[in-house]
User: Fold this.
Amino acid sequence: MARKFNEENERIKRQYLHFLREAKRCDTTTVDKVADAILRFERGNGYKPFKRFHIEQAVTFKRQLEADKNGRTGKPLSKSTIDGTLRAVKAFVHWLAGQQGYKSRITYADAEYFNLNAKDARIAHTDRDAPHPTMEQCRHAFGLMPSASVIERRNKALFAFLMLTCARDGAIASLRLKHIDLAQSCVYQDARDVRTKGAKTFTTCFMPVDPAYLAAFVDWVNFLRSDKLFGNDDALFPKPEMGVMDGAFAVIGLAREPYANATAIREAVKSAFTSAGLPAFGPHSFRKTLVKHGDQICKTREQFKAWSQNIGHDSVVTSISAYCPVPYERQAELIRGLA
Assistant:
């Protein structure tokens, strides 16, 4: 049976991952992705020692990635996935070229062989218009969401909160009641407790959307505080508490701890849309929906700047370039209209 690891490789990989965490200040998710990419490269070349690296290994690895399939969909890997994997391994080999015991065997130029060709690199970095629901589709799906059980009620409040704040799913999963201020109609996304992107701390005021969303969310917060006696440190959208009921394992209430990740939140949102006969839009698509909505209702640059800051963007350019691209047809229409 072929060996599944190489001791010498493992030692140098451990040093590199430590370097990423402590020197480059990468978060755990990023480090894990890099580790997976390097392992994929090792697996592809039969776990040969990195000291025996040759540029042909890089060329072969690129061919392997082009032939590989996505384990979930069965389709070929996307150009962006291939590019990300190659970039991670390239950075590792570039680092190796400066390490004792490797710099006499690997040059910095060797790392360049992990580059995609120019055509595929352009494809990998092309911005595409991601599917997103309209405001009307969101209201339709929300109106059809059931609220009989406590979990259904929680999911409906979760959907409402997304429309009110445009928050990222990772942040939502880690929010606690202390971060909500109903009197000021805002949520304080404190990076010390909340898993915000880039560990950024900011305050989001509730968006001016359909009042039904605010009513559902306020009702949920009051239910947690008054009926369930939840305190400030308890989860805003708690996971279910499991136990035995009528001889079977079932949901018996709400735990006070938040979810460890956003998987359940994504499933709840997607289920709301599919149950309404709509595509399975995820939580992140709400950001595009609401930025486009803000682009329509904001009358001044200052208003749109405030809207952009409200969703956590330091620059309004980020909001416009990421969520408000102008399609070619509309571009042509606008230019002709200026004549």
Remarks:
- The chain has two domains: 7-124, 136-283.
